[in-house]
Amino acid sequence: RFTLRKGVKFHDGSPFNAQAVKFHFDRTFDPKAPGIWASFSGPIKGAEVVDDSTVDIVTTQPFGPLLINLTMVHAAIVSPAAVQRLGAEFARRPSGTGPFKLEEWRPADRIVLVRNDDYWGPKPALERVIFRIIPEESARMAALRTGEVHVVLNPSPAQLPAIARDRTFTVATVTGTRVVFIGMNLSRPPMTDVRLRRALVMATNRQAILNNLLEGAAAPMVSWVPPSIFGHKPMNFDGLYPYNPARAKELLAQAGFRPGPGGTLQRDGNPLVLSMIASRGRFLKDAEISEAFQAQMREIGVRVDLEIPEYAVVFRAFRTPTLDYHLVFFSWGNLTGDGDFSLVTPLRSDMVPPAGWNVSRYNNPEYDKLVDLGRTSTDQRVRLEAYGKAQDILARDIFFVPLYNTRDTFIMRSNVKGLAPHPVEYVLGLPGVTMR
After folding, report:
1. Does this model's pTM top 0.85?
2. CA separation (Å) from 276 to 185, 268, 303, 304, 321?
3. What residues contact residue 115 under an 8 Å CB cut-off, 6+ apart?
4. What tens digit of pLDDT does each residue of 225-238 get?
5. Alpha carbon 383 to chain centroid distance?
6. pLDDT for 365-379, tens place per residue?
7. What are the C-alpha distances in Å from 15 to residues 10, 53, 234?
8. For residue 434, what are the CA distances in angstroms to 102, 133, 312, 409, 422?
9. Measured between alpha carbons, how far is 216 from 428 in angstroms, rounded to an integer?
């Protein structure tokens, strides 16, 4: 049961109340057109109005991470009046209750926010915030140096050392909650063979990728659940799957792969050719890492046919019930700080797209039982033990090549004060920012 703050208004002037909360939950869990939060929310059934300022959140079972799941960005309550008035156009003209409101949105160009002078809390110092969309690293950095922009997110790793020495700028970094990896589609042979999966991991020079492509702008991925998240347990990737191409070749031989024409291994007359899809610019060095991985696999006799289309094409491929690729460059960011978010939606067996984000089609009943125990218990010790055992299983079943844990870095011109990166990349502390 939640008691709501009174006197709060949405950006369109309509009241925030219990009826608005129920509207949001009904809209999110509409079976005909569920919202994105439906796949993240857990066993939430809906909301019930008690009175104008009191609302009950109803779940189908006990849910340990309930409170923290309600804080994620997708759970934000929006104006029912604006949704009903604008229809599909609401997606481009959202109305919430926050300290800034939308003024303009030019797709692929910019988003402009203005201060909400009716905000219930302390008013932001900034009157306007403009988000520029500049996909190319070099163009972003040039815009920063010329003063065209005041802050750059995801700066060029190669330019960071020089920028850090320049008093014109301030560099702020925090270890993020997103892990980046190459996922394996377990529904598509020969990825069903764990010996092949282990071989691919051991043939990937992960440290060289960190050193030469990411250049200190990311941390090694040490577990599926990042270190800052409740439930984290190290998965000992370096001990279980050290970089060892020779051992990788042995595993492939054990799996029945033999040398074939052109240096590509084959089994039962079928060449070992794996299809892969990756993005360019969606994640730090995604295309470059994918190309490096392709080259490293070639050294052990595995041919990787790599596609790097527009991200919209990649996204659609991820969300289809049938994934037509053996390998995908993918990532998962934890938005709550709880292991439930990392372990259920992207991995539980019933979370295959479009129901969830189990892109790898991972299916292990023992694992499912553990993560179910972790989410339905309200005893943190029980939850921690269950999540640790679940990560042990993931390490054994290995269905991804671990690459890196993000380090979220902001470069700011020195007159920007009060802005710092948050481990959850979607959280920007704009209300406290000043310009001097």
Report:
1. yes
2. 10, 22, 10, 7, 17
3. 99, 100, 123, 124, 126, 127, 128
4. 999 999 999 999 99
5. 22
6. 999 999 999 999 999
7. 6, 11, 47
8. 19, 22, 35, 19, 17
9. 23
